[in-house]
TrEMBL record:
InterPro entries: Malonyl_CoA_deC (IPR038917), Malonyl_CoA_deC_C (IPR007956), Malonyl_CoA_deC_C_sf (IPR042303), MCD_N (IPR035372), MCD_N_sf (IPR038351). Residues 168-409 form the Malonyl-CoA decarboxylase C-terminal domain. PANTHER family: MALONYL-COA DECARBOXYLASE, MITOCHONDRIAL, PTHR28641. GO terms for biological process: fatty acid biosynthetic process. GO terms for molecular function: malonyl-CoA decarboxylase activity. Pfam families: MCD, MCD_N. Residues 82-165 form the Malonyl-CoA decarboxylase N-terminal domain. This is MCD, Malonyl-CoA decarboxylase MCD.
Amino acid sequence: MANAFFSDLLSTISERGRVLLGRASPANDKQDASELLELCEALLSGRGEASGTAMAREVLDRYHHLDAAGRLSFFQTLARDFGPDHAKLAQAIESWRAKANGDDASDLHFASEPRRQELIRRLNRAPGGTGELVSIRSDLLSLMKGNKDLAALDRDVVHLLSSWFNRGFLVLRRIDWSSPANILEKIIRYEAVHEIRDWDDLRRRIDPIDRRCYAFFHPALADEPLIFVEVALTETIPGAIAPLLAEEREPVPVERARTAVFYSISNTQRGLGGISFGSFLIKQVVEELRRELPKLDNFVTLSPVPGFMQWVKQADDVPLTEEDRQLLESLGKPDWFDNAELATQLRAVLEPLAAYYFLKARTPKGRLIDSVARFHLGNGARLERINWLGDLSPKGLRESAGIMVNYLYRLDDIEKNHEAYANNGEVIASSAVKKLLKGEGRRLLDMRLG
C-alpha cells in the first residue's frame, strides 16, 4: 500500500509538472535522438522538483519511441558529450596542485564526475524510473557489442545501479502457491536453469511439503523478483537433477529431511547483469530455512557447469593428449552415456578435467571461467563434489557433458571461504575434488612416459 501511494504521488507531481512546463504527454510516433538529448540538457539545468520529475518522465517516455539506430545515437552522445565539465575539472585540478587539502580533494572528486551520472540520478526520480533505467541498461548491453565507445557510459550506469541495488535494500520473501499470480508467472518466465514447462510443473516445484522457493525483491521494483532460489528438501546430498524434478516422485517427509538443496538460482533482470547484489545472499536463505527446520544439517547446491565444454573445445591451456581429444569426439554420438564402457572411458578423462577447470583454469584476467562457480564461491561456499552424469538433458550434455557439482554452504565457514576467494582468488574445495586433480596429473605423466 505504501509503495502504491508513493507511486501515485510521484505520478501526480509528474503530471502537474507537465502542466507547469506546458508539455503534453509524448505522442507514440517515432522520436528523434537529438530532440531527446536537448530534453536531457534541460533536465540537467533545471532545479525545480515538480518540473524535474515531469521532465524526467518525459525523457523516459520519449526514449521508448526511439528505434535501434536512435538509441545507439543517444547512448553514443551520452558517452561522448555528457562527461565531466572540463573547465570545472581544470580549475579543481589547479586548486589541488596549489594547495592540497580535504576541501580541494572533495571539489576535485565532484568536478571529475561525468554529467551523465547526475542525469541518471534525475531520471531515477521519475515515477517508475528505477525499473526503466534497468530496462535501458539491457538495451545498452545489447548495443555494446561492436561499440566500445559505450563502455564509459556503462561504467557510470553500473556505478549507480550497484549503489541502488546493494544487499541492504533487498528483501527476502518466500514464494508459494498462494503468492500473487503475476509473481508466479514471472517465476515460470525467468527460470534460467531448469525450464518450468507450465503451471502444473511450477506447482510441483513450490507446493509440496519438501519444496521451498525464495525470492529477493527491491522496494523500487515491488512486483519484480530480482533473484529466486528453488530448494528441495532431501535426506542426503543428491548427485543428479532428474530425481528431484521427476513428476511421479514421492515427497520427502519434512521430519526426515536433513539436506536443503539449492537446485536452481535465477537472476531475472538482464539490465542488472554484472552488478553484484553483495555476498551472503544464499546465507540469508540458509538462515531462513534453519529457523523453520532446525534439523537440517547440510546446505548444498546441485549446480550446472555452463562453461565447461566450451572451455574444453576452445581454450589453449586444456591438459589433454591427442588420444584424449579423439575420445572426446564420442560425445557427439547420441545416447553415448548408455554405453557403459564408453562412459567409463570418458569419465576417466572428464572428471579430472573438471577438477582442473575449477582449481587451475582461469580467464586472461585471472578470474574463474565459470559464472556459477564465481557466484557460489563468492558467497562463501566450498566446492564439495563433482557429479558424473548429473544432468542428462540436452542442455546439460551440450554445456558440461552431463557433469554437475555440489557447492556446500557450512555456516561456520562461509565468511572465511568468502574472504579466501575475494582476497586471494582461492577456491576452497573438498579433498575429494583435490584428489581428482592429482589423479589427472599422474595420468598425464604416465601417458607421456609411456
